[in-house]
Structure formats: C-alpha cells, structure tokens
Amino acid sequence: MRALVKSSAINAPKEIQRFLEDPPLVGGETLKDYNAFFAAIAASVKPTDAIDWLFTKDIVDLSWHIRRERTIIADVVKLAQKQIVLALLKATSDASDAESALYRILDAADDANRWANDPEGRREIDARLAEKGHPPSTTLAQAYINAAPQIDAVDKRIAGYETRRIAVLREVERRSEKFARDLDKASSDIIDGEFSAAAE
Amino acid sequence: MASDRKLSVNQRNAAKSTGPKSVAGKRRSRRNALSHGLAIPASADPALSDDISALARIIALASGKDDVTESARIAAEAQVDIFRIGKVRSSIYDRLSRSPLQEADHAKLSKCLASLERYERRAFSRRKRALRDISQTGYDT
What we know:
Chain A is 76% helix and 0% strand. Chain A is mainly α. Chain A has a domain at 73-150. By secondary structure, chain B is mainly alpha-helical. Chain B is built from five helices and no strands. Chain B is extended, with a radius of gyration of 21 Å. At the A-B interface, helix 1, helix 3 and helix 7 of A face helix 3, helix 4 and helix 5 of B.
C-alpha cells in the first residue's frame, strides 16, 4: 500500500496552472482539501507535460466525485439506521407505563441523536436494543433495506463516474502505459481512503 | 423504404407534435437551450476564445508542434467544454444537495446529472479524436 504525499499546492507548470484551478467543489468541500487531493495524485504520478496534467485533472475530478458519492452513501445509511433506532426505541418501551409514554414522546429522539453522534451513547443504546432482540446487525440490515432506492441511485452515479474514469485511463494508456497505471493506482488508493499525510 | 402513403401519414403525425402550441409553452421552450448553455459549443462563446487559444497553444507545444494545429484547437475546445460541464455539475450538486438527501432529491439529482452525460461523452470523444490525430499525424493544419 503506497502512502501518498499530502501537500496543498498543485505544482503544475505556470501556463497550465490556471486551467487546473477551478475545482468542482460543492457545499462544505474546501479548496484546501481539493488541492491536497490533487497534489497527492500529481506527486505520485509526476505529469511531464500539459496533456498529462489535463488527464490528471480529469482523473482527480472524477475521483473527487466518486468520493463525494461514497460519503453520501455513508450518510444515507447512517440516517436510515438512526430512523430505525428511533422506531425501535419507541416500540420497545413499555406501552402501559406512563413514564415510557413520556419517554417515547420526549426522550426517544434525543437518544436516537445520541446513538448517531456519541460513540459511548451508541454502545449503550445498542446494548439496550440487543437485550430486547434487536442486535446492531439487524438494525444495519434493515437500514440497507429501507435506504435501498437511495443507495441504488448513488451506486448508479458512481458507476457513471467509474465508466468515465476507465475511459480516460484508456486514453492515457495510448500515450503512456506507465503513466496510466500510476494514475489508476494513485487515484484508486485515494478513492479507497488510503490518503495519508506522509510528508509535506 | 416507406411508401408515399406512409410518408404523408408520418408527416401529418409529425406536424401534430412539433413542440408547444401555447404562447406560454413557446416562451418556456425558447429558453431550453439556455438552461445550462452546454448545447452551445465553447467555440461559439467569445468569452471563452482566449482560453481556447491559450489551451490550443499549450496542447500543441506539449505534442511537439510549434504551431497551433486544427487538431490542437479542437482538443482545446473540447477541453474547455469539459471544464464547463464540470462547473454545471457542481452547481447542480449545490442546488440539489441538502442534508439529509431524501429519495426524491436523489432521483432529481441523478436525472439532472444524467442530462450532462451526453455533453460530457461528446466532449471527451472529441478531445480523444483530436489528441489521437495529433499523435498519429505530423502537421495537420
């Protein structure tokens, strides 16, 4: 597993630099992160001319989109899990007990939030639900079932980006097999989350 | 080949479905091509001509040519189109992405992004052909 160099500057030749400085950022994504992402791939593949740099930008941008979509999937699943936990917390409290009725109305949502945001709270609530016959594995499975249409939509978008990424790599291969191989490896490493701050 | 009778029926039928009839519908559809501007090639936009020229020169030089060839210019135009598509894609994500994304949001996001794909495919393939021309031939001006 290769560690990628993390840097915040894209050291492209001056004449091509301005064409690389328009990143496809969305919402809370930052220029600093994007530049570090780009620089890490560029440092690994070492583009030698302007066309190499343009191909590198294609791969960086497509990889960036794929990472974003993967984050969306994680959020979708987490949200679905939280909704299931909330429903289970309400369903497993004792219906005949007035205190439990109050819990369902007032506190279950807070517990579900705690489950989503606090690792300690999550362990405690998971244990409580497991005792009542709902282990975390079934909650997760149910979350995937409930969120299947959204996950499917995101998967299709990822597949689209992957197809284009492969097409670009094939084009790069015509110029240099080694450069295509390095670009594929560097971007795959990053997509798979192997982005480490090895050096400045 | 279709018979004369079939041709005239086809023409009659086509005339029944050639776009909006009402004034409001025509007004709306008039703006369809402007919704993201990608139907208009980068070369037709004077604001992008400097970028295209600069990029064509960079591509020509990177390909070992001293002069800007027709293929370098086509590759540059396609590249600028790829940049434009990237910007439109970001704005679509920005407009439709909210947290948390609901099922309907995903469907809409996918639909909007899919509409960009054909422009992107065309741009990639124009650039691919132009770059291949540059590498396979000598001067092609």
